[in-house]
Amino acid sequence: IHVRRADGRDIDCMMHVNPRLKTRALAMVFNPLNETVERELELPLYYAGLTKTARAREQNGKPRTYTLDRQYRIRVPLRIAPASVTWLAVE
Fold first, then answer.
1. How confident is the model at residue 71 (pLDDT cuts 50, 70, 90)?
2. What residues form DSSP beta bridges with 12?
3. Which residues lie closer than 8 Å to 68 by C-beta, 6 or more apart?
4. Which of 20, 36, 22, 63 is nearest to 76 (CA)?
């Protein structure tokens, strides 16, 4: 799923989903800019099979619980260093 298509002007994000696994979604985020970026990333989790809540963590960090909105999305705050990659795992 293309969460945010690559255009070189802001963060890029692609997400893989599989509702049969413990980790239902894996989002890869890339910051192509020469500056640190702080954004609230909206992840669509409809195809992940989650309906009420989701636990998301950045890389090996501590997971946080989010409530899905009516369109099965969560909003995750991110801070990404210049020209770097991070990932989010959702259970």
1. very high
2. 30
3. 45, 50, 51, 52, 53, 54, 74
4. 63
Our measurement of the distance from residue 76's CA atom to the centroid of its chain's CA atoms, rounded to an integer in Å, reads 7
Surface-to-core class of residue 28, CB atoms within 10 Å of its CB (0-12 exposed, 13-18 middle, 19+ buried): middle
Residue 78 token pair: 């991110």
pTM of the model: 0.91
Residue 44 predicted with pLDDT over 90: yes
- Spell out the SS3 assignment of 22-88: CCCEEEEEEECCCCCEEEEEEEECHHHCCCCEEEEEECCCCCEEEECCCCCEEEEEEEECCCEEEEE
